[in-house]
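Archive entry. Fields below.
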Amino acid sequence: MTDPQEFRLAVVSGGTSDPSSTRMLADRIAGRVAALAGERGERVAIDVIDLRELASEITTAIVSQLMGPKMTRAIEVLGAADGLVASAPVYKAAPSGLFSSFFHVLDNDLLIAKPVVLAATAGTARHALVVDEQMRSLFAYLRTLTAPTSVFAASEDWQDKDLGQRVDRAAVELLLLLESRFADKVKDESWKSYQHEYGSAGGTELDIDLSTDLMRLAAGGSAPRTEQ
Amino acid sequence: MQFGIFSVSDITRDPVSGETPTEAERIDAIVQIARKTEEVGLDVFAIGEHHNPPFFSSSPTTLLAHIAALTERLILTTATTLITTNDPVRIAEEYAMLQHLSKGRMDLMLGRGNTAPVYPWFGQDLRQGLPLALEHYNLLHRLWREDVVDWEGEFRTPLQGFTSTPRPLDDVPPFVWHGSIRTPEVAEQAAFYGNGFFANHIFWPSSHSLRLIEFYRQRFAHYGHGTKKQAIVGLGGQAYIAKRSQDAYREFRPYFDEAPVYGHGPTLEDFSTMTPLTVGSPQEVIEKTLTFHDTFGDYQRQLFLMDHAGLPLKTVLNQLDLLGEEVVPVLRKELASRRDPDSADAPTHAGLVEAKYGDGPVRQPKPNANQGDNTAGATPYQDTSEE
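PREDICTED_STRUCTURE:
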């Protein structure tokens, strides 16, 4: 059974330099979630997925659907996570291609109902709406539960205490969402109402429903009547 | 255990010479490749079905009948025959004809194909791909087993008193494999009918293929065709062989890197680690292929992809020499020693005839006389006519 006091938090960072402000922002959010949880007698285990290390496997997955060992591990981490912090650098008014591509190659049902704080960094405040206008739609497609507050940090924000307040606000939201166990409940009560393919959800979706119309057709029955 | 090769029939520029073969050259080459397959002691030759350039194999039964006439022992089959966009009535007729002409040295593998635009070219609806495949096979199954079929379904005009001719050789339907990489319904259909199940086993790790094969084995047993190990499993695979491992890598790399499907993606090293591809010496190919048996247990057919990605004919023929002379004889011996005596034999026409008739007489249908309206009546064969 899941320990009700413990949460697994996956941090996905699209930062490419080392150190990276994108990773730093993600770490601050994750660190605040862990600290807040600690104050409430809860524990947060953090796994970090640094996409720069997966870059060649991500491009391989795009062109050949073949998942390398690092991608396989990242998918395991995400599948086991109770929540995510997803942090992207903004290039040319969009989340980086590396960041977007990583999420493009995941199974559609891997992250269903998991709470996510979205974060992004950029060299200029003119990119501020990229998080809410572009990243949020990607995570909506993946049926995640994005926290109301997203965190954007342009270069100048790092010298502004307001950034810390937004980080705190997002961390509280994420912790409350984690505590609700919303993703677990969706999985228990409504998992089948989402689209799945055989072997999806990172290779874990292996239940086969033998009572469908198609299964009856496979076993010599008749095709369901299609509406003309 | 049967060993052979399967080709998608691609016409691909040779990235080393820069030359693209003509359609005529590739069609001549595939016939030479098939003859070589028999000559080096392999059992099976399979060709794909495609309906657009840069592929040539739009008419597999014509090609396979020609090869049948030039060979003695080789089993001719497909990888795959499109059960979606071909009318099952035409499949029944064409493959029964091939079965007669090849004297039973054929079977076929049914698949849904991977080219979306094919559906409208043949008047079908892509969105109905899976139910179309399932219903078409349900009909095909009956067309080869019942002299006179009344049928009604969703996807083609109803049949009233239809007889598919010629009746199968010895009145034993061709063996059918169902190919799929991730569709449980296809595995279920293979299991329901007691047919074979084939995993392409090229692009993904063996563990992916194992899931559906296990499901197929369970369902095969569930439907009473035998035990799980008596289910009939075929696997793809891919190899490039040279006497020395480093030569294999050096020779194959330019073809791999430019290959239409996985080229420009994973490195050759990663792909051969993560997937069933082996690049190396005969001993390395033997060792990797034996891991398939470790994973899947006894299986009945192993097909290798050897003719693709612009590899020149000379190279492919040389690969077949190495496969047939240095790899497969060792595999046959090793797999025979591991084999559970209860596991199924590889399917052959002789085996199917024996299973149906034992020592009894083999049915040889003779049609009744033309009634004057170009039909032979409601019960068209002499041995079933009501007296």
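CURATOR_NOTE: The interface with chain B takes residues 59-60, 63-66, 68-69, 197-199, 203, 206, 208, 210, 214-215, 217-220, 222-226 of chain A (CB under 8 Å).
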